[in-house]
Structure formats: structure tokens, C-alpha cells
Amino acid sequence: MKVQKLQPVKGTKDILLDESELFLHVVNIAREAAKIYGYHEAYLPIFEFTEVFKRTLGETSDVVNKEMYTFEDKGGRSLTLRPEFTAGIVRSLISNNLWDKFPLKLFSAGPVFRYENPQKGRYRQFNQINLENIGTRSPMIDAEMVALAKEILDRLELPNITLELNSLGDIDSRKKYSTALVNYLTKYKKDLSEDSQTRLIKNPLRILDSKNISDQKILEEAPALKNYLTKDSLKFFEELLVHLDALGIKYFINDKIVRGLDYYTDTVFEFVTKELGTQGAVIAGGRYDGLFKIMGGIDTPAVGFAGGIERLMALYKGKVETRKPVTLLVLDRKFTMNGLELAQKLRKENIQTVIDESKDVGKSLKKALGNNSKFIIFLGEDEVSQGKVKLKNLDTREEKLMSESQLIGELK
Ligand code: ATP
Ligand code: MG
Predict the structure, then answer these.
(1) Can you say whether the dihedral through the CA atoms of 197, 200, 206, 207 is positive or negative?
(2) Is the pLDDT confidence value at 317 over 80?
(3) What is the average per-residue pLDDT within 319-323?
(4) What pLDDT is recorded for position 322?
(5) Which residue of 178, 261, 265, 381 has the fewest CB atoms within a 10 Å radius of its CB?
(6) What separation in Å is there between the alpha carbon of 308 and the centre of ligand 1?
(7) Measuring CA to CA, which residue among 383, 384, 361, 365 is closest to residue 374?
(8) What is the per-residue burial (b if ≥16 Cβ within 10 Å, else e) of 255-290?
(9) What's the 125 CA to ligand 1 centre distance in angstroms?
(10) How far apart are CA 145 and CA 187, in angstroms?
(11) Is 368 a pocket residue for ligand 1 (Cβ < 6 Å)?
């Protein structure tokens, strides 16, 4: 029987070597920026009870309807791999009773899972950075949230990204608007795309961001969400804009942004680019003042955003610093202990060291160049008998015999 080559699961992506260096670079930049804004890092479970997502994301959202990885564990519990971070974070704050810790700012990074149609920039397991500011309702905090997202993009020096903003108002105004929208769209029902016809019943607001041309034409005359905002929501949004202006952050108001998940209220925003084809959303977020209550917690306002790490990586144009270790080559089996000890000394001095053992210098040189070493240290009979090591610079080809302390001085 022929053994089949093992295949990766459709929609997954292996991140290795140079790509993993870039991955870490993106995460580290985001983590540093978050830290400067006062965030703490949270490590939460990758799966939760299915209810956690069902109740929060909304039974009618795409994520809950089509995209969740749900399974039963051996104890018969229905569990779901997280399709996003926010619901799990809110669950965690509620189950740990962290009410007296608010306001709380949390940063996380890690994998999320969605059963989507895989294509470039769209995977079934992908990674997000996720930031949440919990416990405050203020336009100042929303402005800070947007500024932090922009700070991360700026620190990564990503070009051609624009900020689009909208306000969804509070839950009541959304309900009123939804009714008005359905009344209007029902007149054109048979001309709407199939998807939109379904949404008309299940999730009418989502029709607003339909990519279908005929839908878009019909939407031109549709009632506008902003006319349904309460006074309080309108004022909140206007103040946010004033704050962004003061910070010099440019934005476009896009009244078609509704976001896919049900729990957003008031501010919603997306950082988008044309460089990634149809997978243009890089960072997306918004305010979710209603979520804590929906999940059975104390009513708590909050705002947050998530960014797709793979998409941020795809946009990155800069160089990522590559590792330049030193190779320590033990030429004779007799000296492996000396080699290990010396390697430990170098590592204590923060000199990246890889060890190798071989009589074949040519082969070892090739390996050293392959792992990007700029130096190779030889440890053989000649060197040990003199109590020294030989250091070779692989760029200049220069070789020098020296003591261990000289070696450390030279390499630092
Ligand atoms: P999209 O409109 O592309 O489906 P979304 O609105 O579903 O995005 P969010 O749920 O807001 O996305 O997730 C935040 C970010 O995660 C997105 O802005 C994007 O960068 C990234 N992202 C979302 N889905 C995927 C995916 N399937 N593969 C890779 N990255 C993704
Ligand atoms: Mg999506």
C-alpha cells in the first residue's frame, strides 16, 4: 500500500523560518505599542462553550451561522474554537468577577478559527492581535482606540491604509432603523441578490455592505442610518470626530460599515487597503456597550479592535532583522565537553551560538553560511592544546587564534 503524503488541512497555513520571524515582528510591534498605551496581556482558552459565541455574536451573524468550528467533547459538551477574541474575554472577566479592576485594557495575540472559503488572505485558522478597553464610555477612549490601531500600522510603516468610520447608534436606534430599512428593501426584494434576500429576514443591516452591484444600486436611495441615531449617539460620534481631528488622524465616514457581528453599538471602524484585493480589511473594531449585559454580566461599556496578522504580514514592506549566530565547530569528539561549556559561556554573554561537531570543515562551513553565521569558532586538537580557540570571520575569511576572554570581547 502506498503511504499518502500528509496534507495540511484546507485553509491552514504553516508559518516557518523567515515568515515566523516576520510574524513575531508584527506581534512584538503591536505588543510594544499596546504596552505604551497601558495594556496588559491576556492568555485565554482557544475554545469556549458554544453558547459563549452563540449568545454574543448573534444567532443571525455569518460567523455563528456558517463559520464556527463546533464539536462535542468526550463529555458531550458543545465546544467551539474561538472565531474571535472579544466574547471569550468578556466571558473571562465575568467568570473571574473582575468588576473592581475596571477600566481594564487587554492585549492578546493568537489563532482564531472560521470555516470560510479559503483564498489569498482568507484562512480557516488565522491569527489576530486583539485589543480591548473595558469599562469606559467616552469619545476620548474611542479616539484613543483608533489612535492605537493607527500607531501599530505606523510603527509597521504600512502604506496606503485608510480609516473608515461609522456610528451604528445604540440598540434602540438600530432596531428602528432596521425596520425602516426592511420596509424600503422589501419593495425591491426580487431584484436583490440571493444573499441579501436571506439577510432581509435574518440580518438586514448586513445588506448595507453587500458587494453586489444591483444591491448597491438599490441601496443608494435607502434610508440613512444616521437619521435614526439618538441625540446622545450623534453627539458621541461628533465628539469622536473632533478628537480625531485634534490628533490629526484622517478618516472617511462610510455609512455602509455595519460590521459582521451583532454586538457593536455606536462607533465602528475599519482600516482598509486596496493592496490585498478583496481581502482589504486589515484592522476592524468598534464599541460594544451592550455585550456584558447580553452575557449576564454587569452592564459595562467597552471598545476594541482586532487585526489580521497574516494580512499585516502581507502588507509589510520593510526588512526583518535576520539572526546572525556564531557557529562553534568541535573538530574532535574528544572536545565535545569543552565545546558545550564554551557555548554556554557565550550564551551567558548573550551571544547567539549554535554548536556543530564534524571533522569535515568544508561541510560545516556550508552549514554555518546556511544558518547565516558571520563567524565560526574552531575547537580542535591544535586549539585545545594551546588553551585557545580559532575564530574565523566568514565575510573577510580572516582567522585568528585567541583566548576565550579575547573571543568574548571580539564577538561582543
Ligand atoms: P472580512 O471582511 O475580511 O471577512 P471580518 O469583518 O470578518 O473581515 P473581523 O471579524 O473584524 O473581520 O476580524 C478582524 C481582522 O481579522 C480583519 O480585519 C482581517 O484583517 C482579519 N481576518 C478576518 N477574517 C480572516 C480570515 N479568514 N483570514 C485571515 N484574516 C482574517
Ligand atoms: Mg469575515
Answers:
(1) positive
(2) yes
(3) 89
(4) 85
(5) 381
(6) 6
(7) 365
(8) eebbbbbbbbbbbbbbbbbebbeebbbbbbbbbbbb
(9) 11
(10) 40
(11) no
Residue 60 grid cell:
443571525
Measured CA to CA, the distance from residue 297 to residue 95 in angstroms comes to 9
Which position has the grid cell 437619521?
227
Residue 112: C-alpha distances to residues 31, 94, 397 (Å): 18, 21, 48
User: Which range is most confident: 146-155, 190-199, 276-285?
Assistant: 146-155
User: DSSP letter at 46?
Assistant: S
Other Cβ atoms less than 10 A from the Cβ of 33: the count is 22
C-alpha–C-alpha distance, residues 394 and 390, integer Å = 12
CA 191 to chain centroid: 38
What is d(CA 286, CA 306) in angstroms, rounded to the nearest whole number? 9
**Ligand 1, atom nearest to 280 Cα:** 3
Residues 89, 305 contacting (CB under 8 angstroms) = no
Contact by Cβ (8 Å): 316, 26: yes
Give CA–CA dist 333/288, Å, rounded: 64
Residue 58 is predicted with a pLDDT of: 77
For 408, the grid coordinates are 568574548
CA distances from 118 to 7, 250, 338 (A): 15, 32, 52
Q: Which atom of ligand 1 is nearest to the CA of 259?
A: 6
Ligand 1 touching residue 125 (CB < 6 A): no
**For 36-189, where are the E strands, in sequence order?**
40-41, 47-49, 70-72, 78-81, 104-113, 125-134, 162-167
- pLDDT for 1 equals 62
For residue 130, the Cα-to-chain-centroid distance in whole angstroms is 6
Top mutation candidate among 161, 279, 287 for ligand 1, by most atoms within 8 Å of CB: 279
Say what the pTM is.
Answer: 0.94
Q: What is the pLDDT of residues 74-133, one digit of tens each?
A: 999 999 999 999 999 999 999 999 999 999 999 999 999 999 999 999 999 999 999 999
DSSP, collapsed to helix, strand or coil, labels residue 157 as coil
Q: Which of 2-11, 167-176, 368-377 has the highest mean pLDDT?
A: 368-377
Please give the order of strands across the beta sheet that includes 252-253.
Answer: 40-41, 104-113, 125-134, 302-308, 281-287, 265-272, 162-167, 252-253
Please state, in angstroms and rounded to a whole number, the distance separating the CA atoms of residues 288 and 307. 17
- Per residue in 263-309, pLDDT (tens digit) is 889 999 999 999 999 889 999 999 999 899 999 999 999 999 999 99
